[in-house]
User: Fold these one by one.
Assistant:
Number 1:
Amino acid sequence: MSPPPPKPPWLRVRFPTGPQYERTRRLLRNGRLHTVCQAACCPNMFECFAHHTATFLILGDHCTRECTFCAVKGGPLAPPDPDEPRRVARAAADMQLGYVVVTSVTRDDLPDGGAAHFAATIHALHARIEGVRVEVLIPDFQGDADALQMVLAARPDVINHNVETVPRLYPRVRPQAQYRRSLQLLQTAAAGAPSIPTKSGLMLGLGETDAEIRDVLADLRRARCRILTLGQYLQPSPDHHPVVRYITPEAFDEWRRQALAMGFDQVASGPFVRSSYQAGEIFEQLG
């Protein structure tokens, strides 16, 4: 395999810290909470923490899957902590969040994939923070429609589930996931709760072609996905899937134009865009 291309200048970032960053980090540590910002080595972590926001990671910080793009660890799994939803809600209230994003590791070891824990966290947030908006970035629950319905019944404001990449790359990038299963989840959510917008995202630079990207966007629209995120894949370590190419900011702008023309209501597209990046601002722009 050829060596990865050199990192381009537009991917150089400052790491703002300061009192707000440290306060966010301390609050999360004292609350015994995990964030996907830390677990997945998100390049936006310093910016988000400095702006006193974070994406909560529930159900532990160890995953049952072995996706080659992801920095989240595998390893020993603990039972769901019944007090975690309360601690998430308390931390969100302390951070004065009006829009909260909650995701999880994938827990294929649990009968419902963790759906009840998602629902409990949504309920705890609604009970603690008046008028809060809650976006959940959920796993595929191995195609369990009852698990998905449990989450929908808790009335989140956005259901997010990432397809991550094009179907050809699934065996190498997401070996325990199924592209069609992810599409079906989004379609089922849109049909079962049409008032709750669905959202999905892809990483670019894993080896996909432009034609394959267009095909995935068309599939997402057919599944009635309304919100799209497109970002640059960044290799977390030498042991992870290599970066095949870096997408220019101009190309990300063009993908945004194409996606809007295909009918997506909102599109965030850029090198540092991630699933939950500026999620609240995107939601507010929905018609």
Number 2:
Amino acid sequence: MNSNRRAAVARTLDPWPKPPACGVRLAVVWIALTAAPLEAGDDFEQPPISCSESQPANPIAELNDRLARGDARLAFDQSLGYLRSVLELLHVPISSQTLVFSKTSMQQRHITPRNPRAIYFNDEVYVGFVRGGDVLELSVADPQLGTVFYTLDQRVRERPTFMRQTNSCLICHGGTRTRGVPGHIVRSVSVDHSGQPIFSAGSHQVDDTTPLADRWGGWYVSGRHGDTTHLGNITYRHRPGAEGERDTTGLNQIDVASRFDASGYPSPHSDLVALSVLAHQAAAHTILAKASFDARMAIHREAALNRELGQAAGHRWPSTNTILDAAATALVDCFLFSAAPAFQAPIEGSTTFAAEFSKRGPTDGQGRSLRSFDLKDRLFQHPCSFLIYSKSFDSLPDEVRQRFWEKMRAVLQAKDTGGKYPPLSPAERSAIREILVATKPEAGRTWGGQGAQP
């Protein structure tokens, strides 16, 4: 390759070349070419991800293998189909049940305010059930492939099998709403009495940054939340705001069975704390997948560039560093709830979900856990995501995890409460650090061992 060709390839794949002798900086051109490596919806179908062509390795894929070998069996119930058996085998608690009645999923023809869709979840798996529906809808956080989608036929089968879904789900769950990677969407929309969204009233994508007042349109919500309002439990005849004074009958509901016939559901609840955890982890799983995909694709492109230019295999380009740093920063921001608004009033769930979730640990020597709830001023007592223990986190490229721990060190050693993480006092930063050192071996190794100051 001649020198002009080498220079052209280098400038195309690396957005920050050294400025030319004339002093005109070319960075803007190269940033436009590479700054958003996963914005094209099909990029995750290319190497090194090759999402649809790759073999999943996750709890649903493992259960499928067990079913095929005869090591596990799904029991059919005339009312719930395979739901209870699936929840049991995948270790998904019934107390996690949340109910959504907007027509915003693949089985929308069955979904109405009188027949909501139930969602159950644990740290990795999500199960969707519609009474009278054709299939169970499942998704799982796959460490290498992001969110992987499945369906299970709700008719009696001699050998029931989870069928992987790709294009049919990724049309909605693999675009700009999910950061360009396979992910989840939790939305708050106003709906009419049939469950149809009233899109002219606007909508909100729900995550940790969404105030409670903008959450849960089109969902049932059971629990207490004081004077704080939300958009759940309500349907509209006309566009919201056109009906006069706002309907407040949906607030502070202990259960929601009075709003629809709850027979045929394992629970009459749509627990407010479960909804809050769902909003956090659905968004966090997408950010984990985005970090993984961006980093792996950047390293893949860098290796190709090094081969093309005859560089050493480990040569690191500035553009790769930028992408790796951005991935780690997004994870730190998400895991430390950096943009989460403070609660305006304490919240309380209506089921045993909070107690069951808190018991799952791990805990440090003082009994402290990242799963312990606060529920007065914020969701968790020690605001660092429990997904730091997940396979999706542990499977991130080493270069991302290294930067993550370095950035966490910088945040947790801060002596003041200002800057980007104002909710974290020095004592709270110290508690998070100590819990991580005690319960996450990688934190201890990176920060110098048990009790080490990060």
Number 3:
Amino acid sequence: MRSRNRLVALLAAVTMGALTACGPSQSDATDVEQGAGGKQKITVAALPIGSTAALHLGIDKGYFDEEGLEVSVQTIPNPAGAMAALQGDEAQFAYTPSMPMLTAATQGIDLKTVAAADGYPENAYQDWVDSGKKTTPADDTAVLVGEDSPISSPRDLEGKVVAVPARKAQMEITIASEVKQDGGDPSTVKWIALSLQDMIPALQKGRVDAIGEVTPFIEQAKSQGARVISYPGLGTFKEGAVGLWVASSSFIDANPEVIAGFRRAVHKANTYANENLDEAYAKAAEITKIPVKILKAGDPPYWPDSVAVSDLRRAADEMVKLGYLDEVPELEPLVVQ
């Protein structure tokens, strides 16, 4: 119970409010229940966002069955809750962006990366720059302002109220990076934490000056008149895995075959989603309850087929530069190869 409460308090501080219920003991968490036909039962804590479509497609296509895994998806509203579900033994795998994962790891929370959940294609940023930044990049994050807002660039966010899904977490850090790269002072931004669903009404009512959103809420906001001024994820990470599927070291050590099978199934599903976007859009619409027509107004998420230590290093370097981490932690042990 004590370790559970410590995790919830920590993740609430570094990301958003987390779950409060307690699960079984840590020793129980290393055991995998047997399901039908001898399959091993696992629970995955996932967010109701477009990139989760690949996971669901993998389940539908039987990729996890092929690995002897029976998957239950537990929908969690935010990364902090997903990580808390993992550490509270309510799930064996959880979704988290890389930056909250690094923050948690530096505070002694037991998390390791086992597979890629979303990210950017190789050379994505350079290709966008080479195009003169005239195309819509493959970025599932964006900063949006009202249709008539005078804000036109990240630098203009100085002194403004900006809504993010969580304080001192990934969206805030990437927007701060954009402001600094544009010659502004991110320390003057007035951050406010709102749920992804509440951001659009807040922008429309003038409670905030700008919002940091993710797909599919970007497309929903644009359909209601909001205007994109920057793509902070792509501008910060450039390429590679950004969203991650993580597990605890104790579970990883006790279940190497489950980990290997999960990673193979996820990355096979990611490849399928990239190659079958119509199915991915349809599945994303089911998950988010946003019509396919609105989702198709923007680029779909991209699903990498691996996670490299360099992906975490780009995130950690930026966090140190902006003062969100004191130093870059040892990264190699945080990625299961």
